[in-house]
Structure formats: structure tokens, C-alpha cells
Amino acid sequence: MAEIKGIVLVVEDDEMQRELVSENLRQAGYQVYEAAGTREALDLANQQPVEIAVVDYKLGSESGLELIKELKRINPIITPVMVTAFASIETAVEAIKQGAYDYVVKPVDFQKFLLILERARERFRLKREVAELRNRLEEKFSFKNFVFVSKAMERVASLISRAARSEATALITGETGTGKDLIARLIHFSSSRSAGPFMAVNLPSIPETLVESELFGAEKGAYTDARERKIGKFEAADGGTLFLDEIGDLSPAVQVKLLRFLQDREFYRLGSTKPLKADVRIIAATNRNLEKLVSEEKFRADLYYRLNVIRIDVPPLRERKEDIALLVDHFIREYSRREKKNIRGISAEALDLLMKHDFPGNVRELENAVERAVIFAEGEIITRADLPVFLEIKSEQQLAGQERDSSKPLTDRVRELEIREIRRALEKSGGVKSRAARLLGITERMLSYKMKIYGL
Do β-strands 281-286 and 241-245 pair in parallel, antiparallel, or remain unpaired? Predict the structure, then answer.
């Protein structure tokens, strides 16, 4: 028996159209359930492990958009695809706002339709991986601190899940304050090595002359202050994970020794000629551009390739601002408990100030701002006055800049903003439109449309 591609619920009040769509999906290898209306569809979604819901925009007197909302409420990871006879941008935007992954215009082009379903299956699989990872880690480790709603961080969570199932070296890249340390810990504590030690080394914090002994250990007398044998982090992390933070700052001499370990699983204590072995998984992180360092011959290319097996790029907070409100709520709860205060939330004005800030320090900067606000808050709601003064100054500077540019018509300013953001996403994704669309939070179809009208 052929493997089932996925489980699809087809909701269409027109019997002939419903049977046509369902039969084509069955021939393509999908398991299909059929429903003529909302109640039947919800009953099936409650009873069957539906992955993708193909929903008609109009279901007699009922709305397919309302059904999508209900399906998402029953199962948040279900992936709806809207079928509509009304091919307008407004219809598409409305469908996506209600939770549809994409939409198809009647009469259905089944070749294109099947491609959309393939992408919808991938979306469902990623969401399921994230949900499974949350379930595995909720009690074992503080995954509750890994807070997000953005599609960009959903992708990161999926990569964490894959890295946790592997023994391969992982490289985590991202700006300072994006949570690279937390991601390394999540990988370790959800992996088969979770019972072993997790050792973290912040390389720039160690004097360059001591990095080698810190990592590999040293024999008595190996250097001036070595009065006894020192056990290095590689030995201490045996059976577990060694997290090397800011790997881009590693000196060339130590790069050679790290490469030797990754190749042969052997190392030497400083001052010893006896090879030692350790069962250690390496996770490295950096906020620097390793590819640029390699091209400048400041970082070994062979070491870079050894480290860059599983790559996790963590986006800065300014590129996923939809996560800010959720993070703020999380930090308010955390610091309210610590400060023994009954703070219920944040005012709309204060949240708006946070949303407008670019956060060069990323999540760490946001956390510090909320921590300060909780400490200074006198009521049950954090107000604008409780936030750091620099946010007010930054907001005033931005407003002044906007006023200088206000002579342009709104449509021109919107056009310039969209062109700038699309170009930035395309650059970041290496020109791959599907990845750029995910970064922008829109469908690939919508991105192609905007590129066409803007002549990009």
C-alpha cells in the first residue's frame, strides 16, 4: 500500500465540486474526509487527525472564514487552505488574517493546487514539531521561557527539534541578546545527552593565554601558576554537551586544536603528550559573520565547515516585532513574582512605545526594560512613565524624522517601506522567494505579486 501523503478535510457545499476536489486529492495520495457544511466539518475535525483543511469561501449561508477560525480553535496546528471564486487581494488578506495558510481561485488548477498542498503539509509538519518539542521540554527544561508567535521563530524551534534528535555539531548565529545560550540549552536538555553535563564557555571572557588550559586542561607545571593538574571543559563535559559561545573570537592556535578534536575526538592537556578522548557534543555560537572571517583568513575554513553542520540563525527582535507583546507579558509575570508585586499587565501606550523601539540589544534589552518597569511600577498596570527614559528619547527622535518626511504622500511612503522590507528579506534569504516570504509573514504568491507591481 502506498504511503499516505497527508490527511485532508474538504469542506464544500457543492456536491459535484466537493467530489471533484476529493477525488483528485485521493489520486495524488491523500487521505480525504468530506463535509458539506460547518457542523459536519467541526465534528470530523474533532474525531479525525486532520492536517490540512480545504475550505470553500462560501458554504451556503455560512462563512468559510468563520469555519477556519473554529477549526484553528479546535486544533491550532491544523493548516487551512481557502478556495474562493472571488480572486481579490481583499479576500486573500481576509482569509490569511483568519488563519488560512494560502488560497486557491476557482476553477481550481489542480497542478498549482497540489503544489500549495505540499507547502501546507510542510507548514503543518513544522508546527507539529514545535508542539512536540514544547511538550517534551515543558517540564524537563524551561521551554516556557522560549516565547514566540512569529513564523521566523517557529522555524528556529523546528531546527532546535531536529538538532536535539541529532549528534551533529550545531552552529547558532545571531546578534547579541537574541537568546543563543537558551537555544543551546534547549538542544542539550531535549537530546539523548540530557542526563550528561552541559558546560558553557564564554570565550571572550577568558584571557587569551588561558583559553587553551580552560578548554583542554593543563598538567602541573605547564605554565607559571599551574600548581596542580587542571581538568578542562572537554573532560568535564564528557557524556554531555560543550557550548562554546562567541566562537568567532577563538585564537588561531586554539582553532587548530578544536579542529583536531572534531576530526579525531582527541585532545591533549597543556604540557602533556598523552592523547585523551572525550564523548562531547559541540554547540558553538557567534554574533560575528564567520563567512567574512573565513574570507579574511581570520577563521579557519575547515573548522567553519566542521561547525556549520546544523545551522540555526536567530533573527533579531526588530524583525519579529509580533513577539514583543508576548515576551512583555512573560517578563511581567516573571519579575512580578520575584518582586512580590501584583502587576496585571501593561498599558496600550507603554506597549506601543516598546513596539516602536528597534531593540539593538534584542530580547535581553527588552527583558531589562520590563524588569526596570516592574521595579518602578506603583500600580497594577505598567505605564509609559515606568519605562526607561531612553525609550522616550528614541521615540521623539523617530517622530521628528517622520515629520521631516511627511511631505510625501502616504501611498509613496508605504510603497518605499514595502520595497525596502522586500529587498531586505530577499537579501537575507539569498534570493529564495519562499524563505523571503516567510520572513515577511506573507505567502510566496503575495510576494511575487508585490515584486511584479514594484518592478523588483
Answer: parallel
- pLDDT (tens digit per residue) in 128-177: 877 776 665 544 455 566 888 888 998 999 999 899 999 999 999 999 99
Arithmetic mean of pLDDT, 419-441: 79
How much is the pLDDT for 398? 53
Are residues 362 and 176 in contact, defined by beta-carbon separation less than 8 angstroms? yes
Q: How far is CA 350 from CA 346, 357, 385, 402, in A?
A: 7, 11, 8, 20
Q: What is the model's pTM?
A: 0.62
Distance from C-alpha of 280 to C-alpha of 235, rounded to nearest angstrom: 8
Q: Give pLDDT, residue 341.
A: 94
The C-alpha atoms of residue 157 and residue 189 are separated, in whole angstroms, by 14
Q: Given the C-alpha cell 506601543, which residue does it identify? A: 352
Main-chain phi, psi angles of 434, to 5 degrees: -65, -40
CATH of 318-404, one of 3.40.50.970, 1.10.8.60, 2.60.120.260, 3.30.1330.10: 1.10.8.60
**In whole numbers, what is the pLDDT of the chain averaged over residues?**
86
Asked whether 372 and 354 are in contact (CB, 8 A), the reply is: no
What does the domain layout of the chain look like in residue ranges? Answer: 7-128, 148-315, 318-404, 410-454
